[in-house]
Amino acid sequence: YLTGSTRHAPTVVQEIVFRMTGMAFALLNDNTHIFNYTKRIFECFPALVYQRTNTLRLSLLCWQALAHLGLDNLSLANKICQHTDKLMKTYSFDFTSGRHIEVLQKMILAEVYFKEKELNRAIRTAEAAVEISQKMDFKLLLLTGFKLLGKMYSQVRFDKQYNQTQQQMSLINKSTSFKHFDKVLATVTQIN
Predict the structure, then answer these.
(1) Each residue of 128-182: pLDDT tens digit?
(2) What is the pLDDT of residue 63?
(3) What is the CA radius of gyration of the chain?
(4) Which phi-psi region, left, alpha or beta, contains residue 72 (left: φ > 0; alpha: ψ -120 to 50)?
(5) pLDDT confidence tier of residue 38, bands split at 50, 70 and 90
């Protein structure tokens, strides 16, 4: 799929392959490969760079921000997140495909703020991501958001909020089939 450059937009099948492969890299926390992968897609489909409302482009940008975050390049991760945030505020992405990207972008931005020691901004951004996840019933993103909030709340010693996030996580785990999500999340956080 990624040979040469083309003026054509990616086909639906190509987009599905790109999204699934990118998601696999993200789940594996393979930051170097995800960055090179997204860069290669932009090289092969240069028109994507100019398609502001394309959700594939937003996904690629979020994955690039995630890769930069994982490679401790906070300034570029922040810059990309600010850009995607501006796009989401300017253009309508209220459909399901856009909302999960918005949640992902907010969680990456919250992590950037957290690493930059801007705890208030980090907490507000993570709470916004969790709120969207709850409204849209994105269970995995909701669990990830609660895990991120739990880390932040324990850092600032918000015991009541920390306990509430732990309760919410256990309720979601009990009411869904994500029984092994804690193990996956623990593995991913150990890598970071």
Answers:
(1) 998 988 888 777 788 888 888 888 888 877 877 777 777 777 777 777 665 555 5
(2) 92
(3) 17
(4) left
(5) very high
Residue 70's nearest CA partner among 108, 97, 13 is 108
Q: Give the residue among 176, 177, 179, 172 at the shortest CA–CA distance from 150.
A: 172
Question: Could you tell me which of 102, 51, 106 has the C-alpha nearest to residue 78?
Answer: 106
Write down the pLDDT at residue 7: 75
Task: Give φ, ψ of 91 to 5 degrees.
Answer: -110, 155
Distance between CA 52 and CA 92 in Å, rounded? 11
Question: What does 57-78 look like in DSSP terms, one character per residue?
Answer: HHHHHHHHHHHHHHTT-HHHHH
**pLDDT number for residue 112:** 92
Q: List CB contacts of 53: < 8 A, sequence separation 6 or more.
A: 87, 91, 93
Separation of alpha carbons 91 and 102, rounded Å: 12
Separation CA 26–CA 97 (nearest Å):
17
Q: How many other CB atoms are there within 10 angstroms of residue 138's CB atom?
A: 20
pLDDT bracket for residue 191 (50, 70, 90): very low
Q: Report the C-alpha gap between 108 and 174 in whole angstroms.
A: 26
